[in-house]
Every structure is written in C-alpha cells, then in structure tokens.
Amino acid sequence: MNGKNEQVLQKMLSEIAIASSLMDGIDLDSFLADEMRKRAVCMTVINIGELVKNLDNDFRAKNAHVPWKAIAGFRDVAAHKYQTLRMEDVYATVSDDFPALKEMLEKIIT
C-alpha cells in the first residue's frame, strides 16, 4: 500500500473515532433533539466520504469488500441533498456501520 492510501485510511479512522465519541451514550431520541450533534456527526460522514474519493482506484478495487461506493454516495447525499437526509439514517450508519468499517480499515492497514 502506498503512503497516500495509508494516510487516507488513517484519517478515515480518525473521523470514525470522532463520530463514535460524539455518539457515545447517545440514544436516537437524544441525537434527534441535538442540532449541534447532528451537524457535527454529519460533517464526519461527509469527511469520510470525501476521503474515500482520494483513494486510488486500484486500491479500492483490490479492497472491494469495503463498500466504497456506498460510503461516497452517502457523503453526496449528506453534502448536497441535506434537506432529504434522514437523521435516523445518519444515526444508524454511525451506530451500526461505522464499527464494521473501522474493523475493515484496520485489517487493511495491518
């Protein structure tokens, strides 16, 4: 793996850690009621999706088990179609999908 791809993955892991800390101990109702938290978590989703777009195409193809396209697509919705973004989906993504994504990225790095 080249240094650029590894750097991008490390930054993605950092963003996942930030989102996880923002969501620590927060249930769905609390999340939905907290505008600043929603915006902060959405920014981490956007950052992660943007980082995916900086990975080499060959690298993404070699690691096709990671849903790169879905991650980038969710970023596009969060960034460009915010009015249709369901905060319940953001909550579920960070709560349910980020732990698995973290594990996949860590396996690639090691």
Automatic annotation (TrEMBL):
Species this protein is from: Gordonibacter faecis
Similarity field: Belongs to the HepT RNase toxin family.
Record PANTHER family: RNASE MJ1380-RELATED, UPF0331 PROTEIN MJ0127
Gene3D superfamilies hit by this protein: bsu32300-like
TM regions (residue ranges): none
Protein name: DUF86 domain-containing protein
Keywords assigned by UniProt, alphabetized: Hydrolase, Nuclease, Nucleotide-binding, Phosphoprotein, Toxin-antitoxin system
Pfam families according to UniProt: HepT-like
